[in-house]
Structures are given as C-alpha cells and as structure tokens.
Amino acid sequence: MAFAVLFLCLITGGSLRAQTQSSTLPDYVDEPDSAHIVLIVLSEIWADVREISGEVVKYNLKLYPEKELVSTRVSMPFLSNLPVLYVHSFANKADAMAYYRRLYKPKPDFMQMNIVESVWVLSKGNLNTLLLEGSVKRYEPFFKEHYLSQ
Residue 80's closest CA among 46, 111, 38, 44? Predict the structure, then answer.
C-alpha cells in the first residue's frame, strides 16, 4: 500500500506527510474548482481487470476525445484486492460529476451486471487525505453530501 500512496501522491502533486499516532487527519474539503479524478472500483467476483480497463479506455476515447482522459490501474488495497481504475484529469468537480453521471445513465457495458462495485469522485487534495487515511469510511458521507446531493 505504501507504494500506491507514494505513486498517487506523486502524480497528484501532493506530498506525503508523516502521521504520528496522536495527530489527526485533515478534513475533506469541497474544492469545486480544483482538478478532480474518478476512481472506479471493480467487483472482485465479476471483473476481468484487463478487459474492463480496456473498455474504460475505449469509452473515454469515444465519448471524451477532447479531454484526453488517462486511465491507470493502481493498487488501493483498502478499496479492493483488484487494481482500481484511476481516471484523470478532470478540470473541476463539475466535469468529473458529469462523467460520473454519464457512467450511470445510460450505463456503458462495463457498468452493467455488477462488474463495477463503486465509483468515487475526488479532488486531488482529497485523494491525498483518502490515501493517508486508507479508508473511505470518512469520505463516504462527505461524498454523499458534497457530490451526490447537488
């Protein structure tokens, strides 16, 4: 997991901060104008990672050729035993949420039949906090309030 945290912090431009046991993690912050990413968590039961990863790339090229979206497989064991698809770079929250909504209506093939377990939209700053925390437990209510309710 340390490699995944380091890798993602490097590509998001963040920094790793040593956390002592007595320190607290930063709060998640609503950053609508900052760069965002989308994490696609695949079902460990149904998903063929290589195949679905290719389908996401095709989907992005077909529907978003002007955005030059990049999809990378990263290890995030606190989300899944399978690699997680990390889709970037969205200019802001609105762009990332438009992509998110389009994944659910109308659903592309890779979003059907429970192949995808969950999809998360995060600012790059919040991604750093998520990686330091190693859990979506605190992020989930933040996501519901600041992304899904708007």
Answer: 44
Which one has a higher pLDDT value, 9 or 78? 78
Q: Are 116 and 39 in contact (CB under 8 A)?
A: no
Closest CA to 43 of 119, 117, 104, 112: 117
Strand locations in 18-143, DSSP E?
Answer: 36-42, 70-74, 84-90, 116-123
Residue 44: other Cβ atoms inside 10 A: 11
Q: E strands within 9-141?
A: 36-42, 70-74, 84-90, 116-123
Q: Which two tokens stand for residue 4?
A: 């995944």
Mind listing the pLDDT tens digit for each residue in 82-117? 999 999 989 999 999 999 999 999 899 999 888 899
pTM, whole model, 2 decimals? 0.83
Is the model's pLDDT at 71 over the cut of 90? yes
Give the chain's domains with CATH numbers. 2-10+34-148 (3.30.70)
- Amino acid type, 136: V
Cα gap 116→79, rounded to integer Å: 12
- Torsion of Cα atoms, 108 then 110 then 111 then 116, to 10°: -160
